[in-house]
């Protein structure tokens, strides 16, 4: 897979995690453990994107 392909894949996963986080936060009884896990995954993807994208 090319670097650009990897960036696109990670960007899509990042966006989907953002949607999941938003959906979870809208629930009256949001699962804080799940939210923490989703945010951790999102941050890890963001960190990888920063290393892959050219300056």
**Number of E-type strands:** 0
Overall outline: elongated
Taking pLDDT < 50 over at least 5 consecutive residues as the criterion, the unreliable ranges are none
Q: What is the CA-atom radius of gyration, in angstroms? A: 13 Å
Compute the average pLDDT.
95
Helix content: over 70%
Strand portion: under 5%
Give a quick account of the main beta sheet: strands, pairing sense, barrel closure: none
**Which class of secondary structure composition applies to the elements?**
mainly alpha
| Element-level helix/strand string | HH
Total of helices:
2
Distance between the termini: 21 Å
Q: Domains counted in the coordinates: how many?
A: 1
Reconstruct the topology from this structure.
Layout: H1 3-26, H2 32-52
Please explain how this structure is put together.
With 55 residues, the chain is an all-alpha fold. It has one domain. The chain is 82% helix and 0% strand. It has 2 helices and no strands. It has helices at residues 3-26, 32-52. α1 runs antiparallel to α2. It starts with a helix and ends with a helix.
Question: Quick recap of the structure?
Answer:
It is built from two helices and no strands. With 55 residues, it is mainly α. The model has no long low-confidence stretch (mean pLDDT 95).
Give me some keywords for this one.
55 residues, mainly alpha, 2 helices, 82% helix, 0% strand
